[in-house]
Structure of Glycerol kinase:
Amino acid sequence: MQYILALDQGTTSSRSILFDTQGQVQAVAQKEFEQHYPQPGWVEHDANEIWSTQMGTASEAMSRANVEAEDLAAIGITNQRETTVVWDRATGTPIHNAIVWQDRRTSGLCDRLKDRGHLDLIQEKTGLIIDAYFSGTKIKWLLDNVDGARERAENGELAFGTVDSWLVWRMTNGKRHVTDATNASRTLLYNIHEGAWDPELLDILDIPPSMLPDVRDSSEVYGTTQGGPFDEEVPIAGIAGDQQAALFGQMCTTPGLGKNTYGTGAFLLQNTGETAVTSEHNLLTTIAYQIDGTTYYALEGSIFVAGAVVQWLRDELKMIREAAEVERLARTVDDNGGVYFVPAFTGLGAPYWDQYARGTISGLTRGANRGHLARAAIESMAYQVADVIDAMEADSGIETTELGADGGAAANDLLLQFQSDILDIPVVRPKILETTALGAAYLAGLAVGYWDSQSEIQDQWELDQMFTPSMPQNRVETLRTGWSKALDRARAWESPDSSEAAPQAADVSTNATSTAPAGEESPAAS
Ligand SMILES: Nc1ncnc2c1ncn2[C@@H]1O[C@H](COP(=O)(O)OP(=O)(O)O)[C@@H](O)[C@H]1O
Ligand SMILES: O=P(O)(O)OC[C@H](O)CO
C-alpha cells in the first residue's frame, strides 16, 4: 500500500502525517521547536531546527506506520507563510535566524513605504497591504543588517526562501530553489495578476532578483528527495502555504466556499475562483492555489494571535499545563465576568491592521479569576473572527451562512459554540482537523496520479460536530460592544519608533552570523 507524506511546518511545531488513499491519517509525529524573542515584538526561528524537527518527525511518522521511502507515492509540503530564510547557496548555511511572520521589526520601514505613497501600488500588484507581516521588508532588513549580506546577495551568493523553499532546497540537496504561487503571493514582491516577481517592487525594496526562487504550480513534481530520512528518491509534488492548503484540504474549491483555521493565528479564507477580488474592507487578496497553470484566488482575513493566546497562558503565565486545559478552566465560570483579552502581542492584523497595537486585559474587577481570564482568552479568538467575517461579507456581498472550522484550537468546543453564538450561524468541524496537511497531501497526490481528480477526493470530507447558535441577540450585542471598547484600549499602544532597534549581539540566537549595530536600520528604499 502506498501513502502520501505531508510535511506541515507550522509556527510552533513541525508535523509529519501519513495519509492513505481515503484521506485517513495513518501516522502522525509532531515536535515543537524553540521560539526566539530577541526583543519585544521580534520573533525568530532557527532555520536548522525547522529542518531537523521536520525531518525528525518525517522519520518518526514513517517508522510508526512501518513505512519505507519506497512506500511513499509523493511528499506534499505546507508551511507557515511569510517567514523569511536567507541562506548561502554554497554552504547551505542560513545567514541569520529566520524572521517569523509575527515579527514587527520592520514596522518603521513599512510606515515609510506608506509615507512615500506606495500603498495603492503594492495593493494593486500584490493584493496585500503594507505591513511588517510579509516577507519583503524582512528580506530587506536582513540585507541591511547582517554584515556583508547585501554584497553577497548582489554577487548571487545568497538565496531567499519562505519555509517551503528552504525545505525543498535542503531535501533536494541544493538542487531545487523553488516555491509555489501561494507562498510567493505572501512576499510583497510577487505580482499576483501577472504571476511573476515584480521588478518595480524589487527595486522599491532594493532586493536583488537573483535571490528569488522559481515560482511553480501548487501541484507538480518539483524534484526528488536526496537522502535524509528517505533511502530512496521520493517525488516532492505539492506545495502550498498552510492556510491555502487548509482551504484545499477542506475542498473549498468552488467560489464562495471558505474556512477558518484556528492555529497559532486564525486565518479565514474564501475562494473567489479565477477572479482576484480587491478588498475594500482591509482584507487581503491572495492566491488560493495554482494548478495546471491556472491561478485561483481567495480573500483572506489574517488574525495574528488565536491559539497563541492559549500558549501564552500556558508558557508565560503557567496557568495551564497543556492547551486543552484552557477549556476546563473556562468552564469553571458562567461567562466572561466583564473581562476582555485583546491578544495583540504582535500588533493586530485583519481587519484592523495596527502594527502598534499591543495586548490588553480589561474589565478586571475584584471577582475576576483564572476562569474569567481563560474564558476571555478563548472568546478573543471568536471576536476577531467575527470582525473578519463582517469585513468579508461587506467585500463580497455574500452573507456567510455557515463557518467551517479547523486547526489545533478548533478542538475546543467552548470556542466553537461561542463562535456560533456570536455569529448566529452554525460552525462545523470536520473529523480530520489536520486539513492543512491533508491539503498538501491532496496537492501532491493529484500531481503523481495517486488521486485522479479533485472529484475523487471531494467526498472524503466527514462531519465531526456542528455547533448551532443559542445566545440571545441582545447578549451578543453587549458582548461585541465590550470587545470593541477593549480593542480601542489596545490600539496604537506602542510608539512607532520603538520597534526598530537592531538586536544586541548576545540576543541573536543560534544561526546569526552578525548584525548591524543597535538602532541601525538602513535608509528606506526610494
Ligand atoms: N483545546 C485547545 N483549546 C484552545 N487552543 C488550543 C487547543 N489545543 C491547541 N490549541 C492551540 O492551537 C495552537 C496549535 O494549533 P496548530 O493548528 O497546531 O497551530 P500551528 O500550525 O500554528 O502551529 C496552539 O497555539 C495551541 O495553543
Ligand atoms: O503556523 P500557522 O498555522 O499559525 O500559520 C501561520 C500563517 O501561515 C501565517 O501567515
In short: The radius of gyration is 22 Å.
